[in-house]
Amino acid sequence: MDDTDYNRPRRPNADTLTYMKSLPFDEVRAQTEINAYLEHQKKDLETVHQDDQPNEVEYPQMLSAAMSALDEIQNEIASLAGDELGSKCIETIARIAAPYSTTATRKLLHGITGYMIHLSTHRYGSHVVQTILQNVLKNWGTEVAKTLEIDEEEEEDLPSLRDLIFTVAKEVAPVSKDLALHICGSHVLRSLLCILSGCTEVVPDHLANKAGPQRGKLKSKKKKKKKKFIEDGSSVTNNASYSEYKLVENPRLDPMDQTTKDCFNNLVFEMTELDLSCSEPEKPSDPGELQQFACNPSAGPLLIVLLRILTLQGSEISKDETQKNVKPEN
C-alpha cells in the first residue's frame, strides 16, 4: 500500500482553522444544556393544561453551534481531519451532534468518503474516522430530534446513511489486510465491524475514566516500566481482550438486513479470507495467515473483537431459534 493507491485531501484552509479555533465547544456543557432543554420540554407538555408554567429554558447553544459549524466545514472535513486542531474540533462536533441528528451523521460520513484509506492510516485522521463511526450507533431517536427541532428532511445531494456506511466499508475492504496490521487502521476496522454487526463496545470504568496523554504528542523518553496487569493477568496496553461487547438496536442500520450481512461478510473475507456466508466450506482454509494476524500487536486485538462479535451473533441466532421452537402451553 503506497501513496499512489489512495486519495489524499488537500491541506486545510488557514481561515477555516482560525474559525474552528474560535468555537467555544464544551462537551460537558453541551450535554447539560441538551438534558435541561429536553426535561423542560417534557414538563411543558405535562403542564400544558395547568396555570403554572415552568421557567423558560434556552435552546442548547452548544448543539446549535455544532450544527452551524458542521454546515460551514462539511466540504473540508477530510482536510481538517489531518490537522491536530481541526481533528479535535471535528471529533467534538461529532460527539455533540451525531447522536441527535442523522443528517449531521450523514454530512460527517460524506466528508470522509473517498479518503478513508489515507485517514485510516493517519495519526489524527484515524481518530476522526473512529469517532464518526462510533457515533453512528449512538442514536436517541426521531422523537428526541423533533423535540430539539432538528430538521431531518432528506437532502438530495447527500446519500442515505445506509449507503454511506456501505460505501465506507467497500472503500477499505480491498486493503483491509494491510489496515489490520496498521496501528491506526486496525482500530478503524474495529469500529466498522461493530457498526455492521450492530455491536457496541463497553469500556471498563477504570479505563474509561483513565486520563492519558494527548494523542499525537511526543513524550519524553523515560525509564521503561513494567506493564500493569489486571486481575485476570492481561495487560492494560490493549482493552480488546477484556472489554465487553453487546448488541444494540439501531434504527439507522439493521444488522439483520441481508445487504448489511453481505457487507459485513465481505469485509471479513477480504481481511481474513474466512467465508462467513458459507456454512459448510468445501475445504478448510490455511490458518497460517490468521496465526500471523493473532501474533501481531494490531491485528491480534482486532481478531479478538471479531470473535466476540461472531459469538454474540451466534448466541442471538440460537436464542431466536429456541424461542421459535418453544411450544405454547395449552
Helices and strands in order, then pairings?
Blueprint: H1 14-21, H2 27-46, H3 61-73, H4 77-81, H5 84-97, H6 102-112, H7 116-120, H8 125-134, H9 142-147, H10 161-172, H11 176-180, H12 185-197, E1 199-202, H13 205-208, E2 244-247, H14 258-272, H15 288-295, H16 299-325
Structural notes for this entry:
The chain is mainly α and 330 residues long. Helix content is 53%, strand content 2%. The protein contains 16 helices and two strands. It has a two-stranded antiparallel ribbon. The termini are far apart. Residues 210-214 and 229-237 have low confidence and may be disordered.
The low-pLDDT segments are 210-214, 229-237
Instruction: Profile the largest sheet.
Output: 2 strands, antiparallel
Percentage of residues in strands: under 5%
Radius of gyration: 22 Å
In a few lines, what is going on in this structure?
The chain is mainly α and 330 residues long. It contains 16 helices and two strands.
Throw out a few tags for this protein.
mainly alpha; 330 residues; globular; 2 strands; two-stranded antiparallel sheet; 16 helices
